[in-house]
């Protein structure tokens, strides 16, 4: 077993496996490789790799051989996984494991391999999945988040698709990405100002979807990368008139500090609006390199109602971004008098739910001036529609 002192080190490892070609066929491990890394000095302390002979050599397909060169002849004299299981266990058990996409692939394959030989698998002290980590912190500034793409971006050469070489390349990629984020944290790129005037909002049906882009505003925001949605290089704000209120004010969701967010649901009966919001979801997910490790919450909710709905969020004085609150007006649409029908600002102390509940009644209508704010947390991600200005008709 590994010593207690050694367990403070990080184990970068990688597996090469067969690619199943028939229904129900399992992956067979063909190569295991690792490096032991000192987290204080970022140096390699130890390495090991070995080919592994599967129980059935016919599992090695021609397409797999073309990707990494591991042939049936190459592994015919190699040890079986049962032969190396003790060494792999002693190296991994109780350590922090690191690798690219290890949570959904390599860790699963290891457990399957130990189950096949009726042995308990090693358990990690912790895991660092660089795919999930870089998705959250680094984003798609280098393109997709495949190791070969990132390696090419940093000039590290081509990925060999061999276990030891890939483990080392993974380590170098993580170091490069961490350095970029560190330099940005002490010398951040120019912040993109966020205009808050409601006049900057444009009617949703005048937005050109081909002109929507996503940019990284800063490397960290509450521990996660902050991004922004632009339209023709200006932060996107949209105006939606006469939206029917489906459900009144809710405090179901919390902000980053654990405080309730005020929000309400409106109908999204316009196909044009739904298409625009779907496009914003798609572009933002693509920028983030979003995968299935988190739950993406789409802007348009089509699950539980007879027509699509969207959630509109209010900004309070204690919100994430200081400097503005949602301006709320009410307008008596039934009056023929122009003086009475002019919108009147609602004065509330911090926008208390009890004070505003009467205004956001289901069946009423609201004109909304909205900002689109992406978020990307470990458990969930999506885009919030945050109201700069609301005019409620009653």
Give keywords.
394 residues; 5-stranded mixed beta barrel; single chain; 18 strands; 5-stranded mixed sheet; 10 helices; OB fold (Dihydrolipoamide Acetyltransferase, E2P); disordered N terminus; Nucleotidyltransferase, domain 5; alpha/beta; 26% helix
What does this molecule look like?
This protein folds into 2 domains: 6-185, Ribonuclease H-like superfamily/Ribonuclease H (Nucleotidyltransferase, domain 5, 2-Layer Sandwich); 198-393, OB fold (Dihydrolipoamide Acetyltransferase, E2P). It has 394 residues and is α/β, with parallel strands linked by helices. The chain has helices spanning 62-68, 72-75, 81-92, 102-116, 130-137, 147-153, 163-186, 271-288, 338-341, 353-356, and strands at residues 10-17, 29-38, 43-51, 96-99, 126-129, 202-203, 212-221, 224-231, 234-235, 237-250, 263-267, 295-297, 300-301, 309-314, 327-331, 344-345, 365-376, 380-393. 26% of the residues lie in helices and 30% in strands. The chain is elongated, with a radius of gyration of 27 Å. A hairpin with a 7-residue loop joins strand 13 and strand 14 (309-314). It has a 5-stranded mixed β-sheet with strand order 3-2-1-4-5, with helices on both faces. Strands 10-11-14-18-17 form a 5-stranded mixed beta barrel. The termini are far apart.
Summarize the SSE layout with pairings.
Blueprint: E1 10-17, E2 29-38, E3 43-51, H1 62-68, H2 72-75, H3 81-92, E4 96-99, H4 102-116, E5 126-129, H5 130-137, H6 147-153, H7 163-186, E6 202-203, E7 212-221, E8 224-231, E9 234-235, E10 237-250, E11 263-267, H8 271-288, E12 295-297, E13 300-301, E14 309-314, E15 327-331, H9 338-341, E16 344-345, H10 353-356, E17 365-376, E18 380-393
Parallel strand pairs: 1-4, 4-5, 6-10, 12-18, 14-18, 15-18
Antiparallel strand pairs: 1-2, 2-3, 7-8, 8-9, 10-11, 10-17, 11-14, 13-14, 15-16, 17-18
């Amino acid at each position: 077993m590994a010593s207690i002192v050694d367990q403070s080190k990080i184990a970068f490892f990688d597996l090469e496996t067969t690619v199943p070609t028939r229904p129900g066929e399992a992956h067979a491990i063909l190569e295991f490789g690792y490096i032991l890394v000192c987290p204080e000095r970022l140096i390699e302390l130890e390495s090991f790799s070995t080919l592994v002979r599967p129980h059935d050599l016919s599992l090695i397909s021609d397409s797999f051989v073309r990707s990494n060169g591991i042939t049936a002849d190459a592994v015919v004299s190699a040890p079986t996984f049962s032969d190396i299981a003790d060494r792999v266990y002693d190296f991994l058990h109780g350590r922090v494991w690191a690798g690219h996409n290890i949570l959904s692939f390599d860790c699963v394959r290891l457990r399957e391999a130990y189950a096949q030989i009726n042995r308990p698998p090693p358990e990690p002290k912790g895991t660092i999945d660089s795919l999930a980590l870089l998705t959250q912190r680094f984003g798609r500034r280098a393109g997709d988040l495949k190791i070969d793409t990132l390696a090419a971006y940093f000039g590290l050469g081509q990925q060999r698709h061999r276990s030891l070489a890939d483990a080392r390349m993974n380590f170098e990629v993580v170091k490069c990405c961490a350095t970029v984020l560190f330099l940005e944290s002490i010398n951040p790129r120019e912040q993109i100002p966020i205009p808050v005037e409601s006049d900057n909002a444009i009617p949703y049906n005048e937005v050109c979807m081909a002109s929507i882009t996503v940019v990284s505003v800063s490397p960290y925001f509450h521990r996660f990368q902050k991004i922004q949605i632009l339209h023709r290089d200006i932060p996107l704000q949209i105006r939606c008139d006469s939206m029917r209120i489906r459900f009144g004010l809710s405090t179901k969701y919390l902000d980053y500090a654990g405080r309730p967010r005020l929000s309400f649901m409106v109908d999204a009966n316009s196909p044009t609006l739904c298409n625009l919001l779907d496009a914003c979801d798609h572009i933002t997910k693509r920028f983030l390199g979003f995968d299935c490790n988190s739950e993406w919450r789409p802007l348009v909710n089509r699950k539980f109602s007879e027509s699509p709905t969207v959630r509109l969020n209010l900004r309070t004085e204690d919100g994430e971004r200081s400097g503005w609150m949602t301006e709320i007006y009410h307008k008596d649409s039934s009056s023929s008098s122009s003086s009475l029908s002019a919108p009147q600002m609602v004065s509330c102390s911090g926008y208390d739910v009890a004070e505003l509940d009467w205004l956001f009644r289901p069946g009423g209508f609201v004109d909304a001036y909205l900002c689109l704010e992406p978020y990307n947390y470990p458990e969930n991600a999506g885009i919030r529609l945050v109201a700069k200005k609301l005019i409620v008709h009653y």
